[in-house]
Structure to design on (749 residues):
């Protein structure tokens, strides 16, 4: 707002530099114009039109932003409010947004349920391993593809994209059988590998766009200074794309953190993750809205914190991709 | 340089986290083992709602037989996929699976016979329809763990109101009471549809209730052996009765399912509902209708009272290496079947278990449930592997069109062709 105010309202001195000396549309600005005497001038009607246009664009953008925020934020807010409702309030007809009586009972029930804490640990383990696997594989793959530009590299990156188009359920059952045969049934590592199949293609594509944005001159300069190619990658390129790596990591982490189908098919007692536990509140006998929303709200907290923590890196990473060329 | 320091720091933290996670990943945080190979451990795959039903049994089984029970709890919607996946791979992570009755035909080849558990005494103490359903191709393959059926829940306070009683008698010529026939149900529903309230609900999103009316009209539901009989007179009569209630029900019947109907009743919007018996004990204490609900057996048609049982069966997969303990657990579940009644769901499968509680306060739904399950016309769903597909692609769409005003005869004839195609 301060920037907008200074640009629109401005100080008299600033205004004088921009405003013309005469014209029907100069009401109220005559003295400022006179004070501005021999400085560089711009036609008043042009400046006003420009400023008015900016204001309407800005207003439109604010409205669109507000609509987008409501569309994205309302479901989560509704979930949050529902988690504080009493059982009868959660199923009110017609539904209400705010709880009539606020209660923490749903949180007590949800967190007191057996297996919830273990599922949080499992989700964390699985997401960390899956993210690490994705990055370890995606960074060199993307670097190789963008720097060497071979036909096989192009085929590889397209093939990676195609794997995103295969329905997870089609590979879920064979994967579960393979893990069982490998003796990895019902372990977080098996689930992490499965989750990596989801996040790896996206990670390769993301990292490729980030590497593309880094001028090759930087590496050549590092090579001239005595770095090997790997040295240049580690010392020069990786620091430049660190924001991109953060973006890729958070997407990989989220893909694993929220994944349901593989977790449903591949976990039992030892490695069940929280999305499955949340789904367990819906039974053949009904849906415990209060407890389900309470656990979902708690499960959202780590992701929100992670996003806030890496916010700067994420923005930097997104900008990195945007300024290519 | 500061960026590199940051990266090094991130890499170190990430590496440490990964190392810790990888170390811990060997076992996971949920428990020590995933297969019931340990001598005294049994893994039981159960739908989330059924977990509560078997918790007491598991504790008792530990005391009686020294068996530790681990529950693999899954949401209902995902359980069929999981079962299909593990049975088809031949590598199962459980020793006992609680199966919905509609899944028994689909998995009959993947589970073991448990004939020895169906003693004469057991067969007498289990509802006849369940004994019949548990027997597939001449062998008993599942022991019912708990069962359910639709009964009538009604607003006792409204039915006992003197003004309502007098008005009803004056209009219909008989006393206002819980309905026992289709005609009474229609008239009571019509009577209470006033002042923003509705007499009953009509569920267009689920098929079981209409099928119960088909049984009440004297026909097997949908299939008679290998013949598709969905277009016979009983099916049409039941469908016409079902849709006739729409004028006494909240609008939007095509989308009403179990959850919606339960909410409407608990919120005091409907005076009656035909609903699964467990719902009686699940009415929230702060609901407007709490303490004001009466129960009655399911209504009867020309063939008498009938309901469609909703049992779950405990089965032993052929692929388990822990058959002996699995059967011991099922025996425990049968012996201590009444422990399920003390759970939050409050259901059992043995007649004696229900009878033990039926006269106790808070269990008023058990008498009507027993009467409904013992009804001569009460019958189970057809034993075909295609049943779920028939329900999802034919029966529910048929009902949704019917409650929206579709021609019942034409819809049933069309449904017959579709089912015949599915069964080819």
């Amino acid at each position: 707002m301060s920037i907008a105010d200074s640009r629109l309202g401005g100080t008299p001195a600033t205004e004088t530099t921009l405003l013309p000396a005469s014209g029907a549309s100069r009401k109220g600005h005559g003295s400022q114009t006179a004070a501005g005497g021999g400085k560089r001038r711009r036609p008043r009607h042009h400046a006003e039109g420009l400023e008015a246009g900016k204001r309407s664009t800005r207003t439109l953008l604010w409205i669109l932003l507000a609509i987008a925020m409501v569309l994205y934020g309302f479901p989560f807010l509704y979930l949050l409010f529902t988690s504080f409702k009493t059982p009868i309030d959660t199923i009110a007809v017609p539904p209400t947004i705010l709880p009539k009586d606020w209660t923490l009972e749903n949180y007590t029930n949800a967190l007191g349920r057996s297996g919830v804490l273990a599922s949080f640990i499992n989700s964390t383990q699985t997401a960390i391993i899956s993210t690490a696997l994705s990055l370890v594989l995606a960074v060199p793959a993307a670097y190789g593809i963008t720097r060497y530009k071979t036909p096989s590299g192009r085929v590889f990156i397209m093939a990676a994209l195609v794997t995103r188009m295969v329905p997870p359920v089609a590979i879920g059952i064979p994967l579960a059988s393979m893990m069982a045969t490998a003796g990895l049934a019902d372990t977080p590592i098996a689930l992490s590998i499965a989750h990596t199949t989801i996040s790896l293609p996206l990670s390769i594509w993301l990292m490729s766009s980030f590497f593309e944005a880094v001028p090759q001159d930087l590496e050549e300069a590092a090579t001239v200074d005595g770095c090997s190619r790997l040295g240049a990658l580690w010392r020069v390129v990786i620091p430049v794309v660190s924001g991109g790596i953060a973006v890729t990591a958070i997407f990989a982490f989220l893909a694993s953190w929220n994944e349901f189908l593989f977790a449903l098919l591949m976990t039992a007692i030892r490695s069940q993750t929280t999305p499955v536990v949340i789904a367990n509140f819906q039974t053949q006998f009904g849906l415990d809205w209060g407890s389900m929303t309470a656990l979902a709200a708690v499960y959202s907290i780590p992701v929100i914190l992670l996003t806030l923590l890496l916010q700067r890196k994420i923005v930097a990473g997104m900008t990195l991709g945007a300024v290519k060329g | 340089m500061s960026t590199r320091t940051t990266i090094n720091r991130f890499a170190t933290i990430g590496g440490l986290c990964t190392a810790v996670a990888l170390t811990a990943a060997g076992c996971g945080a949920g428990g020590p083992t995933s297969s019931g190979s340990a001598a005294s451990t049994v893994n039981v795959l159960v739908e989330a709602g059924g977990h509560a039903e078997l918790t007491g049994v598991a504790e008792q089984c530990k005391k009686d037989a020294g068996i530790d029970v681990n529950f693999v709890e899954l949401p209902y919607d995902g359980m069929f996929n999981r079962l299909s996946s593990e049975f088809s791979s031949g590598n199962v992570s459980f020793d006992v699976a609680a199966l919905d009755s509609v899944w028994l035909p689909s998995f009959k080849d993947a589970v073991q016979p448990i004939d020895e558990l169906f003693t004469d005494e057991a067969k007498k103490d289990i509802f006849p329809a369940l004994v019949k359903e548990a027997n597939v191709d001449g062998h008993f393959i599942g022991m019912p763990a708990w069962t359910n059926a639709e009964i009538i829940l009604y607003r006792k306070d409204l039915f006992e109101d003197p003004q309502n009683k007098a008005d009803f008698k004056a209009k219909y010529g008989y006393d206002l009471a819980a309905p026992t026939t289709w005609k009474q149900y229609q008239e009571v529903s019509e009577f209470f549809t006033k002042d923003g309230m509705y007499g009953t609900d009509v569920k267009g999103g689920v098929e079981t209730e209409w099928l119960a009316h088909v049984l009440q009209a004297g026909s097997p539901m949908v299939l008679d052996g290998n013949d598709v009989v969905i277009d016979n007179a009983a099916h049409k009569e039941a469908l016409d009765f079902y849709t006739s209630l729409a004028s006494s029900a909240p609008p939007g019947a095509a989308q009403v399912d179990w959850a919606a109907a339960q909410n409407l009743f608990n919120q005091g919007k409907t005076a009656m509902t035909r609903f699964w018996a467990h719902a009686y004990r699940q009415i929230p204490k702060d609901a407007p209708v709490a303490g004001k609900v009466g129960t009655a057996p399911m209504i009867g048609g020309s063939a008498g009272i009938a309901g469609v049982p909703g049992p779950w069966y405990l089965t032993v997969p052929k692929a388990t290496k822990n058959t002996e303990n699995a059967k011991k657990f099922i025996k425990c579940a049968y012996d201590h079947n009444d422990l399920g009644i003390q759970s939050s769901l409050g259901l059992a499968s043995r007649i004696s278990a229900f009878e033990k509680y039926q006269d106790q306060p808070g269990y008023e739904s058990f008498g009507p449930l027993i009467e409904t399950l013992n009804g001569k016309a009460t019958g189970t769903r057809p034993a075909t592997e295609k049943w779920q597909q028939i329900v999802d692609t034919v029966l529910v769409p048929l009902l949704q069109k019917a409650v929206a005003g579709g021609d019942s005869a034409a819809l049933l004839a069309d449904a017959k062709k579709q089912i015949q195609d599915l069964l080819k």
